[in-house]
Amino acid sequence: MEKIDKTDKMTVPGGRYSPASLFSGFIKKISKAHKTYGVEWWIMIAGIAIVLFMIFMAFFPYLLAPFGPENQSTGPQLAAPSAAHPFGTDNLQRDVLSRVIYGSRTILGVAFAAAFLSSIIGIPLGLISGYAGGIFDRILSLIMDSIYSFPGLILAIAFAAMLGPGVINITLAVSVIYIPTYFRLVRGQVLTLKEELYVEAARSIGAGDSSILFKYIFPNVIATVAIVFSLNIADAIMTEAALSYIGLGLPAGIPDWGMDISIGKSFLPSGVWWMITFPGLAIILLALGFTMLGEGLSEILNPRLLEK
User: Fewer C-beta neighbours within 10 Å, C or N terminus of the chain?
Assistant: First the structure.
């Protein structure tokens, strides 16, 4: 039987696998994971599917968008959704569908950059602060708690107003509010992990502080950081859209969902519902995808789940 199974997988000399056999193996692994993790697995898969679709849309908008985002000769002004314009047109005769597709590049870029920037600052600070302790830990914790005590959106508004509009400025404004999140999470885990027996054993054999921190403690923090990173992107999407909505986000000429909603609200009393509906649904869908991804990972990486 073993020989037959191997033969079925081979299609060419040299032991290469056929696409069909690889796909079959992938489906078996998915089915096995579904039995192990249950509905949490499918929540994560649904989140991944949404996120991957949005990423594809952001990287290759010209393959999906029928018009350019700033093309003002796509059709009648304020045309309702139709076959020619599935999402309608706006007050400048721009195709709303094309605006939504190209706007995904803006909001994803800002959200990813903000979450990445806050993580590369907050994680090392949390590691060093939790491991070193003492006066350094107390001062840094006080600073981070002070930042964390402010409502995130209000703090982002303050920084965005101070820095002014622009892709880099709004990324910095959004990233600041998430640094304390990574710091508090990592610091709390380091305070627990540094007392574990394997850390004491590493210290007893002469391992240095940097080696203990990055070889023994940090790997045990990565799983939790990945979950928080995904959830932070979802929150950053909402924050970026809110800043653009109130006019503190990106300059004119850059397609953005929050800005399109802000423009469309003026025409809502006239019955032009599509200018705010479709960008709003795009924001909800993208934030939902990252939230489902984060929640699914949270449940799957929970050791207690495997004990069921």
Answer: N
